[in-house]
Every structure is written in C-alpha cells, then in structure tokens.
Amino acid sequence: MAAVVTSDPDPVRLAGKLLADFASFAVGGDLVAIPTGRSPEILYKRIREDGDMARLWSQLKYLQLDEYLDAPAGVPLFSEELRQKIFDPIEVPPENRLSIDPSRDPGAEALRLDRLCQREGPLKVVVLGLGGNGHIAFNEPAESFGSGYRLVHLARETIRANFSKPYPEEVRALTIGVDQIISAAHIQLLVPQAQKQELLERVLAGPIDPQLPASALFEHPSLHIYRMEAP
Question: For residues 204 and 58, which has the higher predicted lDDT (pLDDT)?
C-alpha cells in the first residue's frame, strides 16, 4: 500500500489533520509512541487546547521512543520534555508513562523496554519526526537496521542539530528499534519543516536503505505522512 501523504502550508492545519487521523486509529488503553523535539510542538499545543483530544490522549499508554544517556549538563531529558508538554497538562496517569530510565545499565534497560513492548503491545500508533540525516527515533544511518531497544552513539550531524556549542564529542542514547516501529498498526510521520522536504522525497522514492533509516517505513501498510506544502 502506498503512503497516504497529506500536504498543507499551514503547520497548525497540518497538526490538526494528523490529530483527526490519530483519533480514527486509537482508542483509550492503546499503546502508542510519540516524538520529542521541535516537530511536534504545535501538535502538543493543539492537544492541550482541545478538550476532546486531550481526553483521548489522557487515556492512552505511552512507550518512550528514545532518550539521552549522557547529554551535556542543562539539557533536559526527553521524558521531562514529554512530562511538561503533554503528560502533566492532560493528566496522563504515571503508570501509563512507560519511560526510559537513563540511570540504569543500558543493556538491562534495553531488555526491560523490550519486555515492556511485548507485554503492553502491540503498538497501535507511532508518531515520528524525521531527523536531518533521515533518522527515526535515534536509529541513525548504519550498515543494517538495528533490532530492539539498544544503545547507540549519535551521529555528528545529530549532535550538531540537537545541542548548542561547544558541541559534545560523543552522546550516547537508548532507542527503540526499527523493527519495533514498523510492527505498529499505524505510523504517522510529521515533517512540518520546509528544509526537510527534499529529504522526505528521498524517503518516498526508495529503495529501503539503512543509510536512510526512515526509508524502512516505505512499505508499511498504514504509513501516513504530514508534510509542509509550499504556500
């Protein structure tokens, strides 16, 4: 099945279209995964301001996609970003926030998250942003697609995009695997940035290539893409 592509020059309307589709996919109690960063900021604002949407999202279970393990001092954890921007404002119960614990041994934490995914899943909806080098979650360009939650070293390009100068030499993270992402019933890829549209065209053109991780989504049977359209 070809991806369903929704285009709009207005990022607020684009977020609204994603939310309308999301509401047709998910019901209370479903397990979902949602992104952090700049891409979903308008999306989360719309949820906070829409009572019906807030009620739906407050009834879901959330599996965290990725997390820094050793980010520079002052850089907030993704779990804290999600707490502030979406979980606390709409009152998601703490037991439904299946977060990554960066203080634990990475291997043990990855195993715990894999077991959580198996026990609480399958994932109903995964909402993703598109990294500047084509990464999804923190699945960076590589020789092959990684499997399961695992420790990764962020690409230099990702470090420069996510942090301020002086850039750290190395940042480790835990990330969900591509295999777990594509096991979801529905995937929504939100790309509201004009500067990422050429990259998105490469993803849509194929072929599937681990050097362009988002290309792994290409053959998913329910892939929905929300992209910026030139006004």
Answer: 58
